[in-house]
Amino acid sequence: MSDWQDRVDAVWADSALTEDEVIDRIDVLAAERSVDDPIALFERAGARDSAGREAEAEVLYRRALEIGLDDERRTRATIQLASTIRNLGKVDEALSLLRAEYEREPRGPLHDAAAAFYALALVSAGEAERAASISLQALAPHLPLYTRSVTGYAREIADGHA
Questions:
Q1: Longest distance between any two alpha carbons in the chain, whole Å
Q2: Which long-range contacts (CB under 8 A, 24 or more apart) does 62-67 make?
Q3: Could you identify which of 4, 49, 128, 152 might form a hypothetical disulfide with 57, taking C-beta atoms 3.0 to 4.6 angstroms apart as the criterion?
Q4: Could you tell me if 133 and 98 are in contact, meaning their C-beta atoms sit under 8 angstroms apart?
C-alpha cells in the first residue's frame, strides 16, 4: 500500500499537471486496485473534486464512505463530500454532515478543517453569525494572546449576545 500511496501522493504534489492529467493519472493508479477499493475511490473523487467535477466526485465519495475508510480518510472524505454537495446546492445535507464531523472529535487533527467547512456551509445557509462563531472558536486556540477573550466573544455570538 505504501508504494501505491506514495505514487498517488506524487501525482498530487506535481503542480505541473493539469486537472485532467491529475484525474487521468489517479485513475490509472486506482485501476491497480479493486473496483470497490475505498481508498482508490476516495482518491478518484478528490481528483474530480479539485477539477470542479463535483457531480462525479459526489458519487465516488459516497461509495468510498459506504464501503468504509480508515478514520483519517473517513474524516477527509466526509469534509470533502460535504463541501462538494454544498457547491451542488445540497446545503442542508452538507450542514448535517459537517456538524456531525465538527462535534465528533473536538481535539481531532482535522477538527479545524471541519470547522472551516462547517462555517462555509453555515454562510451558504444564511447563518453568517453562527459561522463567525464557529470560525472564531477554531481560531482562538492558535492565537498567541487573547485566546480566552476571543473564545468568550465567539460564545456570545453563538448565544446571540454580541
A1: 56
A2: 63/36, 63/38, 64/38, 64/39, 65/38, 67/36, 67/38, 67/41
A3: 49
A4: no
For residues 38 and 71, give the distance between their C-alpha atoms in angstroms, rounded to a whole number: 12
Predicted confidence (pLDDT) per residue in 23-68, tens digit? 999 999 999 999 999 999 999 999 999 999 999 999 999 999 999 9
In whole angstroms, how far apart are CA 63 and each of 42, 54, 110, 135?
Answer: 8, 14, 21, 30
Residue 76 CA to residue 144 CA, distance in Å, equals: 28
| Assigned C-alpha cell, 21 | 492529467
Q: CB-based burial of residue 151 (10 Å sphere; 0-12 exposed, 13-18 middle, 19+ buried)?
A: middle
**Quick one: which of 104, 56, 55 has its CA closest to 79?**
104
Asked if 8 contacts 36 with a C-beta cutoff of 8 angstroms, the reply is: no
Residue appearing with cell numbers 478518484: 44
DSSP state, residue 33: S
Q: Delineate the domains of the chain, giving CATH numbers in brackets.
A: 2-125 (1.25.40.10)
pTM exceeds 0.85: yes
Q: Count the residues in the chain.
A: 162
- Phi, psi of 161, rounded to the nearest 5 degrees: -110, 5
